[in-house]
Each structure stands twice: as C-alpha cells, then as structure tokens.
Amino acid sequence: MKDYTALPQEEKDALVKAAGQLGYETETAYGNCAQSTLYALYKTFPDCGITEDLIKGCFGLAGGCGCGLQGTCGALNGAACAISVFRGRPSSDFGVTGYGVVHEMIREVIDQFTDRYGSVLCKDVLTATMGAPYDWKTEEGAKGYEEHNGTHHCSTAVRFCTETIAQMIVDGRLKYE
Fold first, then answer.
1. C-alpha–C-alpha distance, residues 38 and 80, integer Å
2. Please, which pLDDT band fits residue 143 given cuts at 50, 70 and 90?
3. Is the sign of the CA dihedral 29, 65, 154, 22 positive or negative?
4. Of 56, 63, 51, 50, whose CA–CA distance to 158 is shortest?
C-alpha cells in the first residue's frame, strides 16, 4: 500500500475531503450507507484492501441492518468493516490474541460518532437529525423522510464516517499489508 503519510499535508487533506465527498455523493445517488462508506474508501484508496466482494457483502448492514432501523448506523458499520480490513484477525489467526487494538479503534470511531449524533443506532441518528426515525420503506415514512431531507442526513453520516477512516489512513494509523 502506498505510504500516504509521506504526502504533503495539503494532499492528505484533499484525499480525506475527496473520500468524504464521494461517500456523500454515492449515498445520495444510490443509497446504502454501509456500501457508500466502503465504496468511497475503495475508490479514494484503491490499494487499501477493500474489495468489491466486501462492498457487496456489507449490503445488508445498511439502515441499522436490513434497513430495519433498529441496529447500528450502516455508515458506522462500514467504518468498522474498513478498520477490520486493515487490522482485523484473519481466520489463520483464530485462537490468537492481540487484536484488541481493532476494537479500540472502532470504539474510538463510535465515540466520535456518538459525540456528533448522540447514539450509534440508526433510528436515533434519524431522530437526532430529522426529528423522527422515518421508515422510508413505508409510504408514510418515505414521505416524512423526503420532507425532512433524509437522504442528505444519511449522506452526511456517510461523509463523517468516510472522512474519519480516511484520516486514519493518511495519518498512518491504518495500513494495509
């Protein structure tokens, strides 16, 4: 993987901003917060180990898992997947300890996300940003989601998570080997 830490600060900042913007645009155009987060990182850092299979595999994590609004925000799930690609435990290391740093890094992102949105749960993030957890899968919910600019709010959460992981990459905290 390219050593992004060697780049001038302006280039690092531009990469972080570009990743966040691509995440925002992808979520806005196509939906699926988990995929949008990973896709933006995949396109911005093509050598980071994120694959098309991972992007495909995280499809069901969107909208609080299965778009049920009850679980963790999909953008945050995408961020956790990205950290795990870099630092997670491979199956060849099952039974091996020493991977606690992965959970620590994910909790760090969770803390930042919670500071911003008040919770990690999809329904709580929607409530914090729109006043209610509008379920876009129902006619009434879709109307409320649209009236309260829901796509923008979800895209903003994707931008936040994508930029957070991109910053970890350019700072050298996440390196793909």
1. 10
2. very high
3. negative
4. 63
